[in-house]
Design goal:
Length: 278
Amino acid sequence: MSEPVWKRYLTDYNEGLGVVYERFVLNEYLDKLLARHEVKTVLEAPLYGMAGVSGINSVRLAQQDCAVTLVDSNAERLEGVTRIWGELGLSATFVHHEDMGHLPFPDGSFDLAWEWAGLWYLPDAGALLRELMRVSKRLVFVAMPNRLQVGYLMRKVLIDRDFFKTIDERWVDMGRIKSILREEGVRIIEEGVLDVPPWPDTVMPAAEVLKRLGIKSKKLEGQFSGDSWQWSTMDYYLGKRPELHAQVMRYAFLDRAPLPWWIKAVWAHHRYVLGDKG
């Protein structure tokens, strides 16, 4: 039995251009969220959802002086995440907890409770959503992959069909998520799309996509592999590649375009919703 993909990224920080872009766009959104709302305490549960290095979605919030709590059901992964945060010189509270339907925190413990692309891995994602609402004082943020985007369909139909046997695809339905939030008395104050680069979202590295599509080209394989194709958010956070942000975000013209979000949704990799308990 092969090792889960997340294990590789606990030591190999080369995530790929798409994941690094996704993190930088998310960071920009989190900066805007903090500018609009008073947020000092944050819960991310579960911490596993985005591809690449686990557990660093909330790094930007910690850098902005938020007290961050991270919850993971996998003890080995959480141990690796704790080490990674130590490398970054950042502090957080790390909680190993297996039942995401019953989080170990009192009501209203956090200003913001959130998750990124993790719902479809859970046995009862609805229970987790209700728990995020319970433990939040005010804000709940949820994002999931956009099922309308061409890369999602390519992954589902052509290159990674087995993956969809392992997840609960009902949770890419943002209408379903919004309905549960509203049932619990949460007011939807914002919804939209994030992560809209000029390439499709297939999750896997470009070289692997070519392989699975049966495209054999040494020129293309060389272009998307080797030492010249190294993309690491950790290198940026650790100060090893300060130029990386500008290098990657030159592709953000669609994310930053002043267009209605529903127009961008035909290409966006993720949809999100922000709720307020009021």
